[in-house]
Design a protein that fits this description.
By secondary structure, the chain is an alpha/beta fold. It folds into four domains: 67 residues, Orthogonal Bundle (3-methyladenine DNA Glycosylase II, Chain A, domain 3); 187 residues, Fumarate Reductase Iron-sulfur Protein, Chain B, domain 2; 147 residues, 3-Layer(bba) Sandwich (FAD/NAD(P)-binding domain), CATH 3.50.50; 149 residues, FAD/NAD(P)-binding domain (3-Layer(bba) Sandwich). The strands form seven sheets. Strands 7-6-5-8-20 form a five-stranded parallel beta sheet. Strands 10-18-11-12-13 form a five-stranded parallel beta sheet. Strands 14, 15, 16 and 17 form a four-stranded antiparallel beta sheet that branches. The longest helix is centred in the N-terminal third of the chain and has 25 residues. It is globular and about 125 Å long. It starts with a helix and ends with a helix. 44% of the residues are buried. Bound molecules: flavin-adenine dinucleotide. The site of flavin-adenine dinucleotide (FAD) has 41 residues, from helix 16, helix 17, helix 20, helix 21 and helix 24. Flavin-adenine dinucleotide binds next to helix 16, helix 17, helix 20, helix 21 and helix 24.
Length: 689
């Protein structure tokens, strides 16, 4: 017994000596700092940071391979504690959120569905029920739900994962595990600088909208009464919802699938409804903004293009100063579009929201006179956005045109009004042209008291580029349209304008624009008595402001004398000068200027953060043409909401004509939206062929 005890005790001593020697030979030195950092981390070992556990993450921080805010579960306090140990400082970063790229589903994506003529999973489901087939969409297996270390995902009744925002730490586990690559962690900045690609599940309306607004999402938000969320969704792609809700030509509606069945959803007036809600709520919805980067950007021109670029650049943390030639910001939104369509107070409120982000504005500062591109470079600006619009007007080209004070361009007339200057008109006014400027000059003349306002357009009504609603409202207000007519001469009396001669036209072969060319009918001359003529036959950029110096002369121009830009990035031939809006496209629309401002802000941000300045792969600029809904498809009959308007007899003033939709009308209108998705449709087509 005693012997046995000695043997065991001896073995113990030998083992202890052996272990002691082994500990000396195989000892692993652990940096006390790693232990300290590791202890500051929560110890959940969730792997959300991308390292195998908290010790591995701590080691990465100490070795400088990870930032103090490596722990996504720990939040700001943990990051600060780690930073203190490391002798570093930490700034509060953006809060990201997981987001599902496939927005629609019923059962699982691989169920074959009888589409009944509707080539879209969600629209098909709304009309007839059933599943869908889509190679690219969510499988609905819930792998991401099981993998989420924070229980921030659950599988909904619709077969799709849903994210619980309050639990999501943006760790990215779901993004890494998703077999379809459609669940992504999106920070706000990643979201608002995103340019839609062919792989995004976007509805036809969104794919057609130049600003790429997530239209189904804001319609759905209005539908559930969450108007703030609707505004947030819109402002991710467009900082001008009040403006666009009033003046946008809404090409999105021409792509609306509902339009094939009865009439398109009233998308634009729903946008206006949400924007008006914010305006009248008394509380501005403040968009998120990144920490300051220390980079400075100069924006030339405070039109929608320049102000949109400023809005996104400020949100991305850059310091922005806007230089504007006129006394007030807004560009043609202020100096072109009249108050009865876009009240100045409404415009001011929208612009103030952009300035509130810290954007500095200097008015009465004209490039080419008060500042130059070289001066901006010398002052240390890191990039410039040029958004000077298209303010040069084309003349009629008639003899004596410049001799009569009563002949002016439509924009000269409207700009004068925008500056609150006197703009008297006589009894008979002729406006020449068929675009928005022509309509605004005509409807303004009527409001100023003209008895007869004639609008002469050399093509037919079908070819008029003005917004349809403008032509219609002009008709209600008594504008007298003379289609297929063009001016040929001016006749004066006592050195004042007295009459205009015009010719009748007929439509010939299509020209380069695809529209049928107007051809004069010989011998069809007529005369009209006239007191004022406003020509509105086209505007073009005036780039003289950049041509007075070497840098400006290097900026390449198109053959139409507009700035040549890379459409995907807004970059010009001179780095770091970017451009967009009317000065690059020629006179176009507000929403296109807004699109250009956002694209250029993204381009500038890429440049300032040292990344490749390029558009994403498979960038989706134009929506593919989609087939309609087969006849006979049953769809719930809901009449399209109609804008409430001021009666014609109350319109001889500059009060706003369109008064908005009521809440009830807006909520009902949202029920007409089919919530279409596009990827599902393409997936279906590919698998069907
Ligand atoms: C009468 C009229 C009606 C219209 N109606 C509609 C409509 O209903 N719907 C629609 O979508 N679009 C409409 N448009 C078009 C729309 O207003 C323009 O497409 C849009 O404003 C272009 O935006 P932008 O920022 O490129 O240029 P602008 O809005 O023209 O802004 C350019 C800015 O640059 C400033 N600027 C110019 N030169 C200099 C310089 N050298 N230095 C500093 N600043 C300078 C200008 O003062 C201006 O503020 C209309 C246009 C007009 C003229």
């Amino acid at each position: 017994m005693l012997v046995a005890a000695f043997v065991i005790g001896g073995l113990g001593v030998v083992a202890a000596i052996g272990l002691g020697v082994a500990a000396k030979v195989f000892a692993v030195y652990v940096d006390p700092k790693i232990i300290e950092v590791s202890e500051a981390l929560p110890g959940a070992n969730c792997g959300g940071c991308g390292y195998t556990g908290c010790s591995a993450a701590a080691e990465a921080v100490v070795k400088g391979k990870a930032q103090p805010n490596v722990c996504i579960a720990g939040g700001f306090d943990v990051a600060q504690a780690v930073a203190t140990i490391m002798g570093l400082s930490v700034e509060e970063g953006e809060i990201g959120l997981a987001e599902l790229g496939c927005k629609y589903g019923q059962d699982t994506a691989h169920l074959l569905f009888d589409y009944n003529g509707v080539k879209d999973c969600r629209a098909a489901h709304r009309i007839s029920g059933g599943g869908k087939i889509c190679d690219m969409g969510c499988l609905g297996h819930g792998t991401c739900v099981r993998a989420c270390p924070f229980d921030a995902l659950y599988l909904g009744d619709d077969g799709l994962p849903h994210i619980i925002a309050s639990k999501c730490t943006a760790c990215g586990t779901c993004e890494r595990i998703c077999p379809k690559g459609i669940i992504r962690v999106q920070s706000p900045s990643r979201r608002f600088t995103h340019i839609q690609t062919e792989d995004d599940c976007v509805a036809p309306c969104q794919a057609t909208c130049p600003a790429q607004i997530d239209i189904p999402a804001y319609i759905a938000a209005i539908g559930r009464g969450d108007y703030e969320d609707a505004v947030r969704v819109i402002k991710e792609s467009n900082p001008f919802p009040l403006v666009c809700g009033r003046v946008c030509p809404h090409v999105c509606e021409s792509a609306c699938r509902r339009g094939h069945a009865d009439s398109a959803v009233n998308i634009n007036h729903l946008k206006r409804f949400a924007a008006d809600y914010e305006l009248h709520s008394g509380t501005r919805i403040i968009p998120t903004k990144l920490a300051a980067t220390g980079k400075r950007v100069a924006v030339i021109g405070a039109g929608p293009a320049g102000l949109t670029a400023a809005y996104y650049l400020a949100r991305l943390g850059h310091s922005v100063k806007v230089f504007e030639a006129m006394p007030k910001p807004g560009g043609m939104l202020r100096y072109g579009i009249p108050e009865y369509r876009l009240p100045k107070k409404t415009l001011d409120w929208e612009i103030q929201g952009i300035l509130d982000l810290g954007v500095e504005l200097q008015c009465n500062a004209k490039l080419g006179e008060d500042l130059t591109l070289k001066k901006l470079e010398d002052e240390g600006y890191d990039a410039v956005f040029l958004g000077v619009g298209a303010w040069a007007s084309r003349r009629l080209g008639l003899d004596g045109e410049l001799d009569f004070d009563e002949v002016a361009s439509g924009t000269e007339f409207l700009i004068k009004r925008g500056l609150d200057q006197e703009t008297p008109v006589g009894k008979n006014v002729i406006v020449v042209g068929g675009g928005n400027t022509a309509m605004d000059a005509a409807r303004t003349s009527w409001r100023l008291g003209a008895d007869n306002v004639y609008l002469l357009y050399r093509r037919s009504r079908k070819e008029m580029p003005a917004n349809d609603i403008e032509v219609e409202e002009g008709e209600h207000e008594g504008i007298q349209y003379h289609f297929l007519a063009a001016p040929t001469g001016l006749i004066g009396k006592d050195s004042k304008l007295a009459q205009m001669e015009f010719l009748r036209m007929e439509l010939g072969e299509p020209d380069a624009s695809g529209r049928r060319r107007p051809v004069p009918i010989e011998g069809s001359e007529s005369l009209i008595d006239v007191d004022n003529i406003f020509s509105a036959i086209g505007q073009s950029p005036d780039l003289s402001c950049i041509l007075d110096e070497e840098v400006g002369q290097k900026i390449e121009q198109t053959r139409w004398k507009s700035v040549l830009v890379n459409e995907g990035t807004g970059g010009t031939s001179v780095n770091p000068i970017f451009s967009g809006g009317d000065c690059a496209r020629g006179a176009a629309t507000a929403v296109e200027a807004i699109r250009d401002g956002r694209f250029a802000a993204r381009g500038i941000h890429l440049l300032l953060t040292g990344e490749d300045v390029k558009a994403p792969n498979k960038w989706l600029e134009k929506a593919p043409k989609l087939p309609g809904i087969d006849e006979g498809v049953e769809i719930e009959d809901i009449e399209r909401a109609k804008m409430i308007e001021l009666p014609v007899e109350e319109r001889r003033n500059f009060d706003e004509v369109e008064l908005g939709l009521t809440e009830e009308m807006a909520r009902r209108e949202t029920e007409r939206c089919l919530q279409c998705g596009l990827v599902c449709y393409r997936g279906y087509r590919e698998s069907a062929s």
